[in-house]
Amino acid sequence: MRFWLVTAGLLGLLVGSRPAAAQEAGLAVGARAPVVAVKDLDGKSVDLGQYIGHKPVLLEFWATWCEVCRALMPTVRAAHQEFGDRVEFFGVNVTVNQTPERVRKYVATEHPPFRTLYDEDGVSTRAFQAPTTSYIVIVDRAGKVAYTGTGSTQDLATALRAVAAP
Amino acid sequence: MSNRAIAAASIVLSMVAVPRLQAQASSKDSTLGPPTAVMVSGPDVGRRAPAFRLPWASKDGVGPADQPYDLSLDRGKIVVLAFFPRDFTQGCTAEMRTFAEQYDSLFGPDVTVVGVSTDSLTTHSRFAASLNLPFRLLSDPQQQVAARYAAKDRSGYMRRVVYIIGPDGKVRYRNMRFNALDPKHYADLAAAVRRTRAG
What we know:
The complex is a heterodimer of chains A (166) and B (199).
Chain A: H1 2-15, E1 37-39, E2 45-47, E3 57-62, H2 67-83, E4 88-93, H3 100-110, E5 115-118, H4 123-127, E6 135-139, E7 145-149, H5 156-164
Parallel strand pairs in A: 3-4, 4-5
Antiparallel strand pairs in A: 1-2, 3-6, 6-7
Helix pairs in contact in A: 2-5
Chain B: H1 3-24, E1 53-54, E2 56-58, E3 61-62, E4 69-70, E5 78-83, H2 90-101, H3 103-106, E6 111-117, H4 121-131, E7 136-139, H5 144-148, E8 161-165, E9 171-175, H6 183-198
Parallel strand pairs in B: 5-6, 6-7
Antiparallel strand pairs in B: 1-4, 2-3, 2-7, 5-8, 8-9
């Protein structure tokens, strides 16, 4: 009898536990931002640790085929215009279904308002738990995540105003 | 039942349960609502893939109701079975678009790829047409097949899970947490297809 009570209890833990996982993940606000090195389009390694924890940082995970990213671009452009002197902007290309040439061409024609990184190994995609393209992470100068969001309409200005404040 | 037996049963079940819960509770869902744990293991590598039949749609429209996709009819071929959460969402669009545009390098012409979600056939057809998908999408609204492959999620949407089934009908590869944005996962998938083809 006791065996079955214990077993039932453990099976209850298995089946009825708190809401769990999600594959479509994202960093929690308040969490410490991961510090990784990602290559740029020229293959040069960019250590995000040079920026994260030293000044506010915005990262957008994007791809040339991402229509939502394209729709979001004016918002990012406006944010860069207002905060670009105080916040470091990075656009991390997720490299799925991409080539460096395709990304270079896009950058040359669209002039996105960020430094483009080409995450061929998926290092930052995994570290930042990017759930989808258009995923934006804003990190404050202490290196903590202040904002995450996805989609074509995101209120970046509010979060940037907070992290950029002296 | 002795106390030792009870303790042993507890330890064994804890070893199974706790790592899974820790792994699955480590992140949050930002797009699809909170999924919940469904503790079914699904066929592991080397095990026979459960047989199933499901209605399908393609970019050309909805398939005949009396001719569902039947896994058993693909015996002798390599089958890639890709469970995904939902048509027209960003992650699924990224995954399916990549499968379509990189079909030759990821899979090759001898491989049958089928996507599976809870979406209706009409939605599948529109989704497949929007991305010009060269493969079929199967509709499993009650997640009956998904449950047998451990892709079922109580959120109402399937988890992103990919299997490769060999010509012998056995599972050759599986990724129970396929990440649509991780280039390594696509590279691993392509390598597994090549290994399966090589026997």
